[in-house]
Amino acid sequence: MKYYRLIDGCESRLAAAGTNTVYDLTSARSNVQSFRDLVQAAVAVGEDIDAVAERMVSNAEQIDLSEQIIDVPVNAEEIWAAGVTYRVSEEARQSESEMPDVYQQVYDGDRPEIFFKATPSRTVGPGSAVGVRSDSGWDVPEPELAAVLYDGDIVGYTIGNDVSSRSIEGENPLYLPQAKVYDRCCSIGPCIASPETVGDPHDLSISMTIDRDGETVFEGETETSKMVTECEELAAAYTRSNPTPELAVLLTGTSIVPEDEFTLTEGDEVGIEIEGIGTLQNGVTTV
Amino acid sequence: MKYYRLIDGCESRLAAAGTNTVYDLTSARSNVQSFRDLVQAAVAVGEDIDAVAERMVSNAEQIDLSEQIIDVPVNAEEIWAAGVTYRVSEEARQSESEMPDVYQQVYDGDRPEIFFKATPSRTVGPGSAVGVRSDSGWDVPEPELAAVLYDGDIVGYTIGNDVSSRSIEGENPLYLPQAKVYDRCCSIGPCIASPETVGDPHDLSISMTIDRDGETVFEGETETSKMVTECEELAAAYTRSNPTPELAVLLTGTSIVPEDEFTLTEGDEVGIEIEGIGTLQNGVTTV
Amino acid sequence: MKYYRLIDGCESRLAAAGTNTVYDLTSARSNVQSFRDLVQAAVAVGEDIDAVAERMVSNAEQIDLSEQIIDVPVNAEEIWAAGVTYRVSEEARQSESEMPDVYQQVYDGDRPEIFFKATPSRTVGPGSAVGVRSDSGWDVPEPELAAVLYDGDIVGYTIGNDVSSRSIEGENPLYLPQAKVYDRCCSIGPCIASPETVGDPHDLSISMTIDRDGETVFEGETETSKMVTECEELAAAYTRSNPTPELAVLLTGTSIVPEDEFTLTEGDEVGIEIEGIGTLQNGVTTV
Amino acid sequence: MKYYRLIDGCESRLAAAGTNTVYDLTSARSNVQSFRDLVQAAVAVGEDIDAVAERMVSNAEQIDLSEQIIDVPVNAEEIWAAGVTYRVSEEARQSESEMPDVYQQVYDGDRPEIFFKATPSRTVGPGSAVGVRSDSGWDVPEPELAAVLYDGDIVGYTIGNDVSSRSIEGENPLYLPQAKVYDRCCSIGPCIASPETVGDPHDLSISMTIDRDGETVFEGETETSKMVTECEELAAAYTRSNPTPELAVLLTGTSIVPEDEFTLTEGDEVGIEIEGIGTLQNGVTTV
Q1: What does the DSSP 8-state code read for residue B107?
Q2: Does residue C146 surpass a pLDDT of 80?
């Protein structure tokens, strides 16, 4: 199943999409209004989320997703991200810094690179604009498979856009937090796909398209099979010596990197598609 | 099963007692810390609460209830109560007012007498003192079977003490709310027994004992089989044209009434026992 | 000053109206978004609310109230009401019950009649419909001056509509809570006037108009100078032996009573005007 | 004034210390239970916090701080930190990495180095143990002047301990977030001193003492006059293109660095004293 958060006035509803039909789970159980509610119930009864959702389907109304307003799929207390998880990413980054060694060391080492990426106040959902800093001149989206964690365990997958200032990051690696953590620096969505729906998370195609003024100015694709650090290993690195919140999202790194000449511009439209999950679409605004 | 709320520092835990053993359900599922959490999960998956609790038992630690501090079993948003639900109650009340007709009319009529009894701020749990108003001279406990409602449906039973000022109530029926709703006017506990554990709620013995200075100054007993208005009917009256909160408690009326000479006094100890649920014990303080 | 709660998407703003101009106080101090925020600040610094609001006015934007959506002026944790506070009310009620004595006794006695009236879930604001119970055949609005209490002290005044089922109340005084506490049983608004703005709360004219199908079907008026129990005395009765929430509203009783032939009907429009506060307008719906 | 958060059962109280006496401000105004409450009131009325506190003193009880349990002084939504803000810090760090250039560049550049340091779940108060990661072998405290920000503006100062793993940080600058953000990685306290109490924040002496098994194993001191980037500049960097929460804490960097042979060990006692604020004392535990 894929789980969508729908905006319903000032409240939210949870929808579940199967192969052909979409159900308003909140219509079946009024106390299940969010992915958090679903996971809490699933954890409480010791089942997986799809099994719990299946119990609701027979009482739930079918809806047409195209008539709904879709929100951030989960209000995770914190979002972390990883870097240097794909071989290509490592190579691409060599050109943006004079210190290729640090990336190579991560690639060769036992410790993944993970970092605090975003709070809910800095995260947008499908259809909202991600931000490029007004004090940055070179900005890129980073399309990533994102794991959704409940008490540190992976309970689903979504798509993440780890928007980054390459000019600030490239100026000095000590500026990385400022290149990564700022207003509208992160987008996730459009839904959370259950582990059963995604299948092997390391066998998914990822593609990104950037449109500007009606024209496609970037296209790229990769596969999660090229990840050198797997999701479970990243989650383990995140939860080690670290108090994890009830719900967290962990972006697992990128390997689609636009050429150095490219920078995001206000008004761009970024679409990220991951096999088995869907497409996350966001505009771009200056912050 | 019987469900207890345990005080754990500034947090709470949920315990479930079977026939011989008591389990700390929070040790099995850290996200189930209260009866509310348990019912929310049960409603979400469409099972009864005992079935959900049974899933946790194998992973849960056994505990000794006698070493625990037991709190109000459920933080219900509101508590309502009913009157004139037993024949004996009706008769007893005839002497306290010059208007016997009004009680007779309720007894004969289709509409139960129900009223707003308490907020969480006015409710105490086992071991805490219930209140007698400082401006009242004649005060009585009212031992009652209490239904616990989730979204208006009965999901369990507990014991309630609908402490009342008979002097204020007796002065004028328009003063009933002041005789009923005040500081520490209500006690519930010690646990919530599931419907399966209670069996037929209209076939339970109820007894009350009041001790003062080490001596028993009142003893009385009755049976819920003498109820003339059943729990489901009272719940229906409560939810009719009325927006019910997620969790509510409905006290179902009393038929154990101390003789007119008796009044509660600061320092008294009131024990109410209901078959299949347990004993609710409270001291008395002036408020 | 008069304080209005404005709906701003899924948030709220606080506006203050002086003699000629209306200010958006939230535009002056973004952390003052409600009457609660204003009173908390005023209590913290030991000033009255108008003095605190005056400090904000120079930085605040002027707005046009007619372009705003006005909400319930305060989310009070509980609303209580009083009865038999006007001589006329007492007389009018004699005909609806066979027990005129009980009203006379309240009128002559030291203890006011006060009762739990509504929770936030049962309260509507200006422009929303109040409810008449589907199991009631005779329903009336009760226009009342309402005191707003912070920690038990009067900090302002608003208008209240204590909608009541006279058929249920008249059937049996023990049914009073069901006649009084139900879905949409209470309306308050449109604003909170400070004590300085209201002046003497016992020297205000109150009028009510009920329109049906474009025609006025009831008009009545009275004056708060006819109150036999004053606001401070009612507040004292409310807070005696009673744990009061941070914010409460206390309706002070009515003396405008439509003739016995009149009953509220779905679609009616009820307007209540109190001198120095404004007009509270509500439709009527069956609940 | 200096503001302390006191633990009172499961609630908190706010105390204010003047030159000779300590007042329980919550005893004067029961709705002021935290530094947040005080600042909200001060911002609402447009005064500074000391002026608001002064209004309460005459009604407040005097207390003896030594009999109180002192908690984290403020539950800031997020804590950020800065690096390379003192000349000595820059020099000291040259030895721990093979990339001295990056620190020199920050020192010479216009953009301060700031980074996300801690959430409330990772922050401890006075008397609680700070953490050293179990996967780290070289750990140090970093004693720092900390600015408290309300809506991005400095409203007070406290002491911060930016505990860091130098082995993880030294291994690779990309691991900095893991060296900085983990369980118990941050301590703040013991109080918040108002700007008026602190005076010039860039003219304060800072000293740190580390005791082990009853002996002092490290002593060091510096002065905030050696800061090359001032607090206001760091706050400006933090709030630029960044949505700041209502309350934040910004650690302003360190210049007391134990010799390379030194590492924190479980059981150590770290005391950090800043002139005009006080002493922040913490034990050390492995996490």
Answers
A1: H
A2: yes
- Indicate the DSSP class of residue A246: S
Return the pLDDT at D68.
97
* pLDDT surpasses 60 at D93: no
D49: phi then psi, degrees, rounded to nearest 5 = -65, -35
CA distance B186 to B280: 12
Q: Do A84 and D113 make contact, defined as CB atoms within 8 angstroms?
A: no
Provide the β-strand partners of residue D192: D3
Q: How confident is the model at residue C62 (pLDDT cuts 50, 70, 90)?
A: very high
Q: What is the mean pLDDT of chain D?
A: 95
Residue D10: its chain B contacts at CB < 8 A? 9-10
Size of interface C-D (CB pairs under 8 A): 51
> B29 and A46: CB-CB below 8 Å?
yes
B8 in D contact zone (CB under 8 Å): no
Residues of A in contact with B44 (CB under 8 A): 29, 31-32, 37-38, 40-41, 52, 56
Pairing status of strand B143-150 against strand B153-162: antiparallel
Which DSSP string do the residues of D213-248 spell out, in sequence order?
A: TTEEEEEEEEEGGGBSS-HHHHHHHHHTTS---SEE
The per-residue b/e assignment along A139-178, b for 16 or more CB within 10 angstroms, e otherwise, is bbbbbbbbbbbbebebbbbbbbbbbbbbbbbbbbbbbbbb
CB B184 within 8 A of CB B105: no
Q: Which helix (H) or strand (E) holds C46?
A: none
Report phi then psi at D270, rounded to 5. Answer: -105, 125
- Nearest Cβ partner of A121 from D99, D106, D245? D245
Q: How far apart are CA D235 and CA D224, in angstroms?
A: 16
Contact criterion met (CB below 8 Å) for C186 and C79? yes
CA–CA gap between residue D131 and residue D178 (Å, rounded): 13
Determine how β-strand B269-274 pairs with β-strand B278-286: antiparallel
Mean of pLDDT values over A16-39: 97
Tell me if residue D264 falls in helix, strand or coil.
coil
8 Å CB contact of A174 and D84: yes
Tokens linked to B127: 């071991």
The HSE-up count of residue B27 (CA atoms within 13 Å, CB side) is 14
The predicted pLDDT at position B102 comes to 81
- Alpha-carbon distance of C37 to C155, in angstroms, equals 13
Q: Determine whether the interchain pair C37/D40 forms a contact, defined as Cβ–Cβ distance below 8 Å.
A: yes
Query: What is d(CA C33, CA C11) in angstroms, rounded to the nearest whole number?
Result: 8
Chain segment D154-206, per-residue pLDDT in tens: 999 999 999 999 999 999 989 999 999 999 999 999 999 999 999 999 999 99
Nearest CA among C200, C257, C207 for reference residue C85: C257
**Residue C173: pLDDT above 90?**
no
Tell me if B138 sits within 8 A of B166, measured CB to CB.
Answer: yes
Q: What is the pLDDT of residue B104?
A: 85
For residue B57, the chain A residue with the least C-alpha distance is A45
The token pair that represents D236 in the structure block: 């400006």
Residues of chain B with pLDDT under 50: 98-99
Question: What's the average model confidence in pLDDT over D111-122?
Answer: 97
Instruction: Report the SS3 class of residue B124.
Output: strand
Residues with Cβ within 8 Å of residue C244, at least 6 apart in sequence: C149, C151, C152, C238
- Give pLDDT tens digits for C65-121: 999 999 999 999 999 999 999 975 555 555 555 445 788 888 888 999 999 999 999
Cβ of B9 and D10 within 8 Å?
A: yes
- CA pair distance D128, C253, nearest whole angstrom: 55
One-letter identity of residue B134: S
The answer to whether residue C54 neighbours chain D at the CB level (below 8 Å) is: no
CA-to-CA distance for C148 and C159, rounded, in angstroms?
10
* Cβ distance of A37 and B38 shorter than 8 Å: no
Q: What is the ipTM of this complex?
A: 0.94
The verdict on A243 touching B (C-beta cutoff 8 Å) is no
